[in-house]
Design a protein that fits this description.
Elements lengths: L2 E3 L4 E5 L5 E5 L4 E9 L8 E8 L5 E9 L5 H14 L5 E10 L2 E8 L2 E7 L2 H4 E3 L5 E4 L5 E4 L7 H8 L3
Parallel strand pairs: 1-6
Antiparallel strand pairs: 2-3, 3-4, 4-5, 5-6, 7-8, 8-9, 10-11, 11-12
């Protein structure tokens, strides 16, 4: 049965690119756990599971963090650093061009990883506008991109994006 973590009762330390060590103050230590978001699209800080690989190669849920915002600063940073490596999703800072040709929509964007051009097949299934103003985009190669807040984009980007949403 998984442990539910509400905050200060644990210490979490990053031990690998996508793994952490969990120390429960009652005495238990788990040396290599992989944090995963249970709701990766809708909840970025709530309900994070810590998974342990078993001897037979399957994964076992050890703990669930109700909200990483309630962890101490170092533990929260360890989880966020793992997420930065695991959920490496380029953030779109500016939409430079959107062109439709032969049923595919080609986007050229400036991201936090540089200028990227990608194609999407279907606007309805590949572009998701979320309730908090974020936009998630999946390209034809199944890569993901994020716009954290549409309203903070420049005017040209918002205009190009308006035709796609």
């Amino acid at each position: 049965m998984a442990i539910f973590i509400d905050g200060p009762e644990v210490k979490i330390t990053k031990v690998g690119d996508t793994t952490v060590q969990l120390e429960v103050y009652k005495g238990d230590t788990y040396p290599s756990l992989e944090p995963k978001r249970l709701f990766p699209r809708s909840s970025l800080t709530q309900y994070v599971t810590l998974m342990e690989e078993t001897a037979d190669g399957t994964a076992k849920e050890v703990a669930i963090i109700r909200n990483i915002e309630n962890l101490d600063k170092e533990s929260r940073k360890a989880i966020e650093d793992c997420f930065a490596n695991y959920y490496m999703i380029p953030v779109i800072l500016e939409v430079l061009d959107v062109v439709e040709k032969y049923g595919m929509v080609s986007w050229t964007c400036r991201t936090d990883k540089g200028v990227i051009t990608f194609k999407i097949r279907n606007r309805l299934s590949d572009i998701k506008l979320l309730y908090d103003g974020r936009v998630l985009i999946r390209d034809s190669a199944d890569n993901r991109y994020e716009i954290p807040n549409v309203s903070k984009l420049d005017k040209k980007s918002r205009k190009l994006l308006a035709n796609e949403l």
